[in-house]
Design a protein that fits this description.
This protein is an all-alpha fold. It is 72% helix and 1% strand. The protein has two domains: 22-103, Up-down Bundle (Methane Monooxygenase Hydroxylase, Chain G, domain 1); 108-202 and 232-269, no CATH class. α7 (135-148) packs antiparallel against α8 (152-164), α8 (152-164) packs across α9 and α11 (235-245) packs antiparallel against α12 (249-256).
């Protein structure tokens, strides 16, 4: 009997040590608790017509769900929160966020619209983690990247990943069309990026004179200062900039994304 108590005491000590030295486990359990709490609140908010609070809590539930303990033990596609698949919670968050962004396309200020689009882009990135073989998320991310960042090289990478996803999907046709639309701008940006990389390497190889420290000149930044008159800038980029100068950020986004729209969020899932 004394031996049994000794063994039980040892087991309790080991459990306590695991709690002390494995903070990740405690954090993961807390994330699951927060995910469940946020999802319950989101459902109440949605039922009560509080769309802003519901949108925030669906997003919180999704993000906490990604970092819950289950997400490390099994594939993200198998994770659920209160019986609802994590992918379903993510889709709800995407739906509400994309509706907010689309509703503010013509009336919101540039800064507020940009902030909400960044949130939408982050949700697309997270959904790619949950469903890495779903081409829709890469396409939708590319659309937002064109509108938000004007980073056509980055958008092209997302579109290529979309087209490489297994199986057939209607969204791949749109991805191919958008890929062709941004080709000229992406090619020009790639030239600038290569020039920047070359100049950076040359700058780093030079001996440092601390009395004359300055940053290396950027090809892309110097080009952007005169890009409005450069023949290398596609016509749709000029039209997008004109629309931005008038405050029509929705039109600017459509020019850059070849009339692709974040409305696609509701049809390409």
């Amino acid at each position: 009997m004394r031996s049994l108590y000794r063994n039980l005491g040892l087991i309790l000590v080991l459990i306590m040590l695991c709690g002390v030295f494995c903070p990740e486990a405690r954090a993961d359990r807390q994330s699951k608790v927060e995910a469940e709490r946020s999802l319950l609140q989101a459902r109440k908010d949605e039922a009560g017509g509080n769309s802003a609070a519901a949108r925030m809590n669906y997003t919180n539930a999704f993000i906490f769900g990604l970092s819950s303990r289950d997400s490390y033990r099994e594939s993200l596609a198998a994770v659920s929160i209160l019986g609802e698949p994590l992918s379903s919670v993510g889709r709800k968050a995407v739906s509400m966020q994309s509706s907010l962004v689309e509703s503010g396309a013509h009336g919101a200020s540039f800064d507020s619209r940009r902030d909400e689009m960044v949130k939408l882009q982050n949700l697309y990135n997270r959904m790619e983690e949950v469903e890495p073989n779903n081409p829709n998320w890469y396409y939708l991310e590319a659309v937002v990247t064109c509108e938000l960042e004007h980073h056509y090289v980055k958008a092209r990478r997302s579109l290529v990943r979309c087209l490489r996803c297994p199986g057939s999907s209607p969204v791949k046709g749109k991805a191919s069309k958008l890929l062709a639309h941004i080709k000229a701008a992406a090619d020009q940006q790639q030239i600038w990026l290569d020039q920047d990389g070359k100049r950076a390497r040359e700058w780093l190889r030079k001996p440092i004179d601390h009395s004359k420290v300055s940053s290396y000149p950027s090809a892309s930044s110097s080009s952007s200062s005169s890009s409005s008159s450069s023949s290398s800038i596609p016509d749709y980029e000029r039209r997008a900039r004109d629309a931005e100068s008038r405050g029509d950020y929705g039109a600017a986004g459509r020019f850059r994304s070849g009339n692709a729209s974040i409305k696609d969020s509701s049809t390409h899932w």
